[in-house]
Design goal:
- Two copies of one chain form a homodimer.
- Helix content of chain A is 35%, strand content 22%.
- The two termini of chain A are 24 Å apart.
- Chain A has helices at 3-9, 11-22, 34-50, 120-137, 157-165, 167-170, 213-216, 223-232, 255-262, 268-275, 288-294, 334-348, 373-386, 400-409, 434-451, and strands spanning 54-59, 66-71, 79-85, 105-107, 110-112, 143-149, 174-177, 189-194, 196-205, 211-212, 297-306, 315-316, 319-328, 354-361, 366-367, 391-394, 413-417, 431-433.
- Chain A is of the alpha+beta class.
- Chain A has 15 helices and 18 strands.
- The first copy, chain A, has two domains: 3-194 and 365-451, Zn peptidases (Aminopeptidase, 3-Layer(aba) Sandwich); 196-250 and 296-361, Alpha-Beta Plaits (2-Layer Sandwich), CATH 3.30.70.
- In chain A, strands 1, 2, 3, 6, 7, 8, 15, 16 and 17 form a nine-stranded mixed β-sheet that branches. Chain A has a four-stranded antiparallel β-sheet with strand order 11-13-9-14, covered by helices on one side.
- The interface between A and B is large, with 81 and 81 residues.
- β11 (297-306) of chain A pairs antiparallel with β11 of chain B, so a sheet runs across the interface.
């Protein structure tokens, strides 16, 4: 029985083992689940041991433990660092789940339950792949380091303490993460690019206190109006960001990459349906895929000021606020973008108001050299595991962890995601498609085997 | 002893009588004060009787009683309808009052207490003036109808029931109201113009549901951005409203009126200080007084959409909202303004969103023919009562009652206000300046006497 046949023959065993993992309510944000967190860490450590890893450690941290294990018995072969997390999002609101969050249930080819997609199901894919290799080949043909944390949903603080204290020990030739999604059902995907994210809040102050719009209106500056005028000036009629220098560092897509991205089996009509707006907006001169993955944005995420209750109040408020963010693409520099933006806002605002610009967070964009041989092994492994053509994709979102790992270890990061975009990762009825779970185990096993051939 | 000397000699009596009135907590919005409302109505009726009026009625209504009285013993002389209200705003928050709201107290030349300025103190000015005329001249030299309601602070619904049922009985040559403010301390004023008010709420819908700004940002339309762009387009660089036709019906100020308004003893520096902003805005080409009283505005009163809590959320919301209003000046028509505005918004908004525009209320502007002889009598009466030059002013705010009375009876409305702009009419520590209270009694007595000479 070869590796794929072996994995195929153990479908019920894979699932029953995964059910055990999913039943542990390892909610990192809720302190009453602390014992469940400990239990989940122990469970992961046991399974890594059973899959043949050595030096298994449940590393205590200031918050939730991190599980580490390794297999370093393939001298001369590549070393991979695999990262995942065993903690999950809170399940609330409970009454919106069709079946209980921590009682896994299969319906319509999907496995439902908190953590199925994010990220227990995907971690389990690797555990089962390693176990299958051990059971069929006896030993792992490459060197592997595994790091599974328990704080991903609450900020990963302890992870970075661990990484910084163990740089040498964690050294690898590539980083593998399975915590993303495929482009669409039936399209196994490797994500090689993410946008960065700078997040800001602005406060505009006009009058020293709220004023009556009858008594003062017509002469007093209105901070809401001025906030609106500011944001209207931040895009031109082609929906390009007007901040001088904003696009200066944007790397031009190669012809080949642009062609590949636009040829992906991705349906604009489905995207339009998901958005559900009367029409789409976006920067002129770029396809939707290009707009989403390869172009920077400046987006209002929240706005408030004045009277927002029922009925009417004739007020000119003292202050108005907005939260907004820029998605960044290679090679934009988050610090530089903040500087340019701050300078431009200062220039645009009239002298009738004061403003305060807070930087909530900054995050770099990331793109991997997807022509690196590791990526080619991954692509072939996905095609073997799924029996379908695999594709290279980017994502419009941001995963600060990936960027930071890339910057820390300077090695290729390979995002092998087995979720689907509509699987409710942080919402009720989270699920994973069974075909992707099983396909994932086969693909990951092929990947670890394939790397040995490099 | 002449009328003025008589009034001057009774200062303590005026005050002790007013204290009685102020001590009744006639809060129309709070049902536990229903007995106090009844008590206040009875108190007013008693005093009108004592001042020599006939046919006194406490008119029951669906809510709070209205007090009516009249004196029609001067055939051939003008008939005046005086309006006021005996109900007051709730006193809360109680702990912000330096002395209890319903225990009148004198400090620094001011009388403190709920209702001192709005409107019991001003109603009492008329009661004491009538009483003084009766005590000195024996009888009122003009015809007078008095209507004091108990629902002004809760919408005046019963007032309009009464007015509509008694049109013939209420017929008069002029309406007199004392429920406004003087331009400034030491400047007795007659208000002859008010702006109208249309109030709107707009809802912009882009995506069918909230979207992740990473996954969808750059292609999905953002309703907050589009709302901002809409409002930015509603003013030009001179801060004129861009709605086509918006200014078409605005009556041009006469040279004389413009000159008079700009010559008022009004300090721009004090206005700037009250606003407290780094600078003023407003329509180019007009002085502050002109901007506030004679020019229409379009003002954002509230805005909200997306994430407005602590921290960051990377959302593109489905909807964004704003409340906004236009202040209208003669001869703008509120219906027409709503039509023009709706049409312009429809034209400005991109096809990527839907919108809903709700009209919360519409109200006409009002301006009185202040060259009418009644106004001249009022001006001279104020100068006699206060010993100071009196002025004609407008207000930027709106008093729907005045407009409606004007439209109902088609007679001049004379707003003799004895409050000051900073007397906290609806706030803790409401007060009236004693000099204006006493000056008011003398001025109103002179006014009623003076009208007999027409």
């Amino acid at each position: 029985m070869n590796l794929t046949e072996y994995i195929e023959s153990k479908r019920e065993e894979h699932l029953s083992d995964l059910f055990e993992f999913l039943r542990i309510p390892s909610v990192s944000a809720q302190s009453e689940h602390k014992p469940d967190i400990e239990r989940a860490a122990k469970w992961v450590a046991d399974r890594l041991g059973a899959a043949g890893l050595d030096n298994i450690e449940i590393v205590p941290t200031k918050m939730h433990p991190l599980v580490y294990g390794e297999s370093l018995h393939a001298p001369g072969k590549p070393t991979v660092l695999f990262y995942g997390h065993y903690d999950v999002q809170p399940p609330e609101p409970l009454d919106l789940w069709a079946s209980p969050a921590f009682e896994p249930a299969i319906r319509g080819g999907n496995l439902y339950g908190r953590g199925t997609a994010d990220d227990k199901g995907q971690v389990h894919i690797h555990i089962r792949a390693l176990d299958a290799i051990r059971k069929t080949a006896g030993k792992l043909p490459i060197n592997l380091k595994v790091m599974i944390e328990g704080e991903e949903e609450v900020g990963s603080v302890s992870l970075w303490d661990f990484v910084n204290a163990n740089r040498a020990r964690l050294k690898a030739d590539a980083l593998v993460v399975s915590d993303t999604s495929m482009l669409a059902r039936g399209v196994p995907s490797i994500t090689y690019g993410l946008r960065g994210l700078n997040y800001y809040q602005i406060e505009i102050t006009g009058p020293a206190q709220d004023l009556h719009s009858g008594v003062f209106g017509g002469a007093a500056p209105n901070p809401i109006t001025i906030l609106c005028e500011l944001f209207a000036k931040l895009h031109d009629s082609n929906f390009r960001v007007t901040v001088p220098g904003f696009y200066d560092d944007v790397a031009k897509l190669s012809k080949a990459e642009r062609k590949a991205l636009n040829a992906l089996p991705w349906k604009a009509s489905e995207f339009r349906k998901t958005v559900g707006a009367p029409g789409l907006g976006g920067e002129k001169g770029f396809s939707i895929v290009e707009q989403l993955w390869t172009r920077p944005t400046l987006e209002l995420n929240g706005i408030w000021g004045g009277y927002t209750g029922e009925g009417s109040k004739t007020v000119i408020p003292s202050k108005a606020y907005a939260k907004f963010s820029t998605r960044l693409v290679p090679n934009q520099n988050p610090d530089q973008i903040t500087r340019l933006l701050g300078r431009h806002i200062r220039k645009l605002l009239p002298k009738t108001v004061k403003f305060k610009l807070d930087v909530h967070s900054q995050g770099k964009p990331w793109v991997a050299p997807y022509t690196h041989p590791f990526f080619e092994v991954a692509r072939r492994a996905l095609e073997k595991g799924f029996g379908k053509r695999a594709v290279f994709i980017r994502e419009g979102g941001s995963i600060p962890f990936v960027t930071q790992m890339h910057d820390t270890f300077k090695v290729p990061c390979i995002l092998l995601g087995f979720g689907l975009p509509d699987e409710n990762a942080h919402a009720p009825d989270e699920h994973i498609a069974l075909e992707n779970y099983f396909g994932g185990i086969k693909a990951v096993a092929q990947f670890y085997e394939g790397l040995a051939g490099l």
